[in-house]
Amino acid sequence: MNQGSRQLQTQAQQQVQTLSPQQILAVKLLELPALEIEDRVRAELLENPALEEGREEPESAEENAPEALNGNIAEDGGEADYDAEADFRNEEDIPDYYVRDNNRSADDQPREIPYAEATSFYEMLKEQLGEHEMSDRQRQLAEYLIGSLDDDGLLRKSLSALSDELAIYAGMDASEQELAEALHVIQQLDPPGVGATSLQECLMIQLQRKIQQQELPADLVEPTTQLIETCYDDFTRKRWDKIAKQLQLSEEQVKRAVDEIKKLNPRPGASLGESLGRNMQQIVPDFIVETDDEGEITMTLNNGRLPELHVSRDFSRMMEEQKPGAGSKPTREQKEAMLFLKQKMDAAQGFIDAVKQRQHTLTVTMEAIIALQRPFFQEGDEALLRPMILKDVAERTHLDISTISRVSNSKYVQTNFGIYPLKFFFNDSYTTEEGEERSVREIKLYLKECIEGEDPSHPLTDDELCERLKEKGYPIARRTVAKYRQQLNIPVARLRR
Predict the structure, then answer these.
(1) 402: which residues sit within 8 A by CB, 6+ positions away?
(2) Burial, 465: exposed, middle or buried (Cβ in 10 Å; 0-12, 13-18, 19+)?
(3) Parallel, antiparallel, or unpaired: how do β-strands 418-421 and 429-431 relate?
(4) End-to-end CA separation in angstroms for the chain
(5) Does the pLDDT at position 208 exceed 80?
(6) What are phi and psi of 414, to 5 degrees?
(7) β-strands 412-415, 287-291: how paired?
C-alpha cells in the first residue's frame, strides 16, 4: 500500500532578542568618546538636511507648523492620521529612495570623519582591509574583530564570546568559523603579529612573515620555527640546555635562533596601534570632576564643541505645502515629496533622541562611579579605590551591564589628580579570613612595592612574595600571586636579577 506524503504544521515559541535601528544607533553613539561624537554629529548634519544646529527659535503666533513626526494637520485644523505610504497601490509604486532609506541598517550609516591630525590603530587596520577581496559581511566581521583588539594588537577574547557579542549588540549571527576566517585576514595585515590570539601565535606569525620575505637566514628557518612551536614554554623560562637537547642543536645554533626571536615584537599594536592613535591625538576627557577644599565634588559632562540640534522648521513648512487642498487627493509627486520629507525628519529626530540618551547614560554612569569611589575623588590616593565591578554600577544606575561596559571602555575623566580612563576605577575584590573585603588593586600595589624594594641580587620568589602578603593580611595562594605579577608585567624572579 502506497503511503502518501503528509505535511505537518507545528507552532513553536522562542524568544529572540533583536535591536531596532534606533537602539543600534544609540549603542553606537554611546561607544564614541568626546572627539568622535563631535565628528559623528558633524557628519550627520552634512548627511541629513532636516537636522540643524543651534537653538531653535520660538515659533511665532502666525506660524502653525505641522506635527510632521506624528501625523498631519487636517483642513479643519484637527489632526488627521495620514499614511502616505498607504496611498501607493503596491510596493512597486513606492519610490526607491523611501525603501532604501527606511531599510538602511546601522552599518550602512555614514562613517565617522577621520581625524586629519592622526589616524587611529582601528582606522589604519581598516584601511588595509580595503586591499583584500572580501564580501560586505566578511568586512563587517573583520572590522568588529579589529575593534576588539587589545592595545598591544592581540585578540584575547574568545571567538565564541565575540559571536555572542555580535548577536546581542549588532544583530548579526556569525559562527566561530566565519570569525576565524575574518581573523585570518586580519593576521595578514601590518604590523606582523596583529590579530594573534596569544603571544606564541604572535611570534609565530611574525616569524612566518620573515621567512616568506626571506629575511631569515636559511639555516635558522627550521630551528626558530621548531623552537616557537615545540619549545615555547622552555623558551620563556630560558632553558637553553633543554632546548638544545630536545631539538638536537648546538649551543651556538640555539643562541642564534633565540637572538632572531628576540628581534620580534611581542606587542605589535604598540608600534602604531592605540599607542600611536592615543599618543598622537590629544585625549579629550568625556567628564570633568572637580573637588573643592571642603571635599565637595562636582561633575560636568564635557560636550566640548558639540552643537545643539533641532529638526529644521523649513522641512515642516515644506511638508505643509505638499499637502493637497480640501477634497483633493495628493498627486504622486506630492506623495513622494511628503515621504522624503517625513523620512528625513524622522531620522533627524531619532538622531537627536539618541544623542540625548547618550548624554543621560554617561551622566548617570559617572555619577554612580563617583558615589562608589568618593574617597578617591576626594584624596586622589589609588589605595582608596574600593572593589567595584560593572554590576555594582549597573545596579545603582538601573542600566544593563553591557551598557556600563560600553561607557567605561573608551571614556576618560579629568580629575584634580590627573586624567584617568573609566576602566581605572573598576577592580575586583578579595575577602580576607576575617571577612573583610579588600581591593585587588590594593593587593597589587603592595605586591609592586615588595618587588621594587627587593634586593636585585636576590629577587623575591613567588613563594616569598606570598608569605609577605600573608604577613600584610592578604592570605592569597601562590598561583594568585603569580597571576597578579603577570598582570603587572613583572617577570619571574630569575629574570629580575
Answers:
(1) 168, 169
(2) buried
(3) unpaired
(4) 88
(5) yes
(6) -95, 125
(7) parallel
For 429-495, CATH gives 1.10.10.60
Per DSSP, what are the bridge partners of residue 412?
421
Task: List, in order, residues 6 or more apart from 470 with CB less than 8 Å away.
Answer: 476
Residue type, 236: T
138-190 tens-digit pLDDT: 988 998 898 888 878 899 888 988 888 888 777 788 899 999 999 999 999 98
204 vs 279, higher pLDDT: 204
Per-residue pLDDT tens for 330-360?
778 877 878 888 888 888 898 999 899 999 9
How far from 497 is each of 261, 447, 478, 488, CA to CA, in Å? 22, 17, 20, 17
Q: Are 220 and 211 in contact (CB under 8 A)?
A: no
- Specify the pTM: 0.49
**Residue 269 scores a pLDDT above 90:** no
Report cis status (omega within 30 of 0) of the bond before 191.
yes
